[in-house]
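REQUEST ID: PR-0412
SUBMITTED BY: lab tech R.K.
PRIORITY: routine
TASK: structure prediction, single protein chain
INPUT:
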Amino acid sequence: METVKVSPKYQVVIPRKVREQLGIRPGQRVQVFLYGDRIEFVPLKPMKQMRGFLKGIEGSVERERDRS
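STATUS: complete
OUTPUT:
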């Protein structure tokens, strides 16, 4: 777990190890979520890069009889 400090301008630096693991680059956008007392940053990726990310996922879902 990494700890960062909030600057007087409310900025934080994403630690190098985290940036490298997630492939975050300068200028890339991240989405910010607030969950209770927690902040989450999710890197946004271009749609072309997302191609195939669900490959191999189990797609069969048991449906109710009136939903066939």
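NOTES: Residues 13-50 form one domain.
REVIEWED BY: pending
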